[in-house]
Amino acid sequence: MISLACLAxxxxxxxxxxxxxxxxxxxxxxxxxxxxxxxxxxxxxPRLGLPEIQMTDGPLGVRRDTPSTRYPAGAAAAATWNRSxxxxxxxxxxxxxxxxxxxxxxxxxxxxxxxxMNGRNFEYISGEDPxxxxxxxxxxxxxxxxxxxxxxVKHFAANNQETNREHVNVIIDxxxxxEIYLPAFEAAVxxxxxxxxxxxxxxxxxxxxxxxxFLNIKVLKGEWGFQGVLMSDWGATxxxxxxxxxxxxxxxxxxxxxxxxxxxxxxxxxxxxxxxxNEKVRRILRMIVQMQFLDRPQRDPSIPENDPASARTALxxxxxxxxxxxxxxxxxxxxxxxxHKIAVFGVNADPGxxxxxxxxxxxxxxxxxxxxxxxxxxxxxxxYFDVGVGSFQSSTFENPDRADEHGLKxxxxxxGNMSGTPVVTRIDQHIDFDWVNVNSLAGRLPSKFTTxxxxxxxxxxxxxxxFRARADSGIRVFLDDTAIINDWEIHAAxxxxxxxxxxxxxxxxIRIEYRNSGGGGAIAxxxxxxxxxxxxxxxxxxxxxxxxFDEGTEGEGFDRTFELPDSQxxxxxxxxxxxxxxxxxxxxxxxxxxxxxxxxVPALIHAWYPGQEGGNAVAEILFGQTNPSGKLPVTFEDQKxxxxxxxxxxxSDGGKSVRYGEGIFVGYRGYDHNGVQPLFPFGxxxxxTRFEYSDLKVEPExxxxxxxxxxxxxxxxxxAEVAQLYVEPVKxxxxxxxxxxxxxxxxxxxxxxxxxxxxxxxxxxxxxFDPASKKWKSDPGEYDICIxxxxxxxxxxxxxxxxxxxxxxxxxxxxxxx
Length: 818
Hints:
Layout: H1 4-7, H2 14-24, H3 27-33, E1 36-37, E2 41-42, E3 53-57, H4 74-80, H5 83-100, E4 104-106, H6 130-145, E5 150-156, E6 169-171, H7 174-181, H8 183-191, E7 196-199, E8 203-204, E9 207-208, H9 213-223, E10 229-232, H10 241-245, H11 260-268, H12 274-290, H13 308-321, E11 323-327, E12 341-345, H14 370-376, E13 381-384, E14 408-413, E15 424-428, E16 431-435, E17 449-457, E18 463-471, E19 475-479, E20 482-487, E21 494-502, E22 508-516, E23 522-530, E24 542-548, H15 568-578, E25 582-587, E26 603-606, H16 614-622, E27 657-659, H17 668-674, E28 691-701, E29 704-713, E30 719-729, E31 740-749, E32 754-761, E33 768-770, E34 775-777, E35 781-790, E36 793-803, E37 810-813
Parallel strand pairs: 3-4, 4-5, 5-7, 6-8, 6-27, 7-10, 12-13, 12-24, 24-25, 25-26
Antiparallel strand pairs: 1-2, 2-3, 8-9, 11-26, 14-15, 14-17, 16-23, 17-22, 18-21, 18-23, 19-20, 19-22, 28-29, 29-32, 30-31, 30-35, 33-34, 35-36, 36-37
Helix pairs in contact: 2-12, 3-12, 4-13, 5-6, 5-13, 6-8, 13-16, 14-16
């Protein structure tokens, strides 16, 4: 039989090909087609030549069972403020998909950073500002889809915390939705032409996103004219009729609700119509036809899976996304002539490069740690000090039965209370287990089991020691039969930490108990280490402390703490006390509490999660081979209570709802509105050179306003600056933010070089959403056009009169610039 897909030609209109396929599908095939299969696919229909449409998680790379290029976190990409680099990264991920035969990339994520603690902030190429997010998501999507791969913008919408994410009801007014949380999605649909949108887990104003009429029908498919596929997040569908009637096209990962049995019964009882099913199938088929999935193999064998071009792109994003936050007395870059010995500390220094946890987590082909990178980029002596809990693989234990043998005695029980005879008894050198399938454990354990490890530890130095345990279903740690960690709850994997003072040479009895509640995988990890920093650190020319979070402490399914985990504050302070040239390198998706040590350390680098080339990128900046150019895409508060949304986070009524009481005053808008001084403002980032701004001119250009200004590299190093344009309404008719980002340009300049930059502002740059008229509205009046190096460092300012009414399309200079 010749497939209908092969009968169609490229010359035929898309709709004709779609109708041809749809008309040949049986009712059963159509009912099956609107739910996923094989966890990550749209099912095939072989008799019609419809292939299985394979999806892959993002947005840090193509997540499969095999290794892939790990790119920096979305927050790092946002910190580049580089549109062309966003497109280049999208192209690279698209190529990575084609190398593996992947049709749909589940990226980018564009949810706004509302609070620092959100466990998935690191994934999102957005930061706190909707304009910045919109400007970066469009080129990223174009990059992906230009390679013949569908991009999926997510999570639609107002998914800004992981706490109770599956059911929390976000209570939010329409103006806030329109001005803050929807613009990046709108740009993805209307400007970039994204092929797929993923509905979020949460509710918005009482309806789950997968059945939210306002979001899906009125806005997405109505106002924005979205023609692509609207899919659920995995397991985010909660009913049959709601998603069918309110816009969902595809339930993932399978048909829990939208299955043939349920749908057929609903059809027979006239609760739904076949045309409603046809419309969903038609959208999926249209995506397939438009992306030419029927006309070519999706796998491109000419692209290597371990693509050197992808690795180079990952390095570029890391270089430009890293932000230099503090550089007192210009101790950076390190002087190779006077730097002979470097001490390295910290949980994130080695091995590999940390990354956040969840569906974006992937195994890279390789990962360059900061320790690797520093050693590669200098001839100085570089020593790593195993102080504080680093890798779980670095902890040492003594066998309880043989003191000369390392490891713990592990007893594995096929019950929930460690009773009876163990099914498996063995010596485990380390407790660092992430079992994908516990049934594979010696082939003898059920999905629910318990484990007891026993043995001894023997410190080599006296003083404070830190103990860290991480598990998904419960873990207890006993030191000399006294419980120091007792976390016997069932939850997603999370860390627990305890500190105790120990004596050098003394033998301490250790017992760790773990239980797994089932569900497929199992995570059990435990480690310990000293927190005592040796006096010899005083003799080093610099000390680097790599601190922050990792896949065990920040990720999908849980919100993280604002405080650094694992006694890292104490480690940083102790190193800084002994070495005045201490440099802190942070890894996390946003801000952390730095009050305990920031004044002690002269240099601070925020590296986010910098991907597989992160160690090289950090080292290049430390030694001046790369001039830092990253700018914060989010405001860093001094303390978490300063955040404009903190009062309402994470819940307004014991977990059921979260009220966005701060309204439009998110991020820098809120700090300005509330008169709160941030620790580091939005748009902030230091360089090893200096930039001067001058010659601001603002004048009309057709129906728009054009601002031009000059920027000069006044230093002795080549570098890049992100010049930011903010619009300030002088006497607004309604309450508005004091200033809003409405333009930016990243410019690379040689020493002494100058360039003239221009930013065009359309009516939307001056507008706000008017709830009464349900429209965007720009009021005539005076506005300050501000050019700055950050939201709090305005270099140039010019006042204009702007009037976009049809009868008065004009702008008039109403003052002098400064």
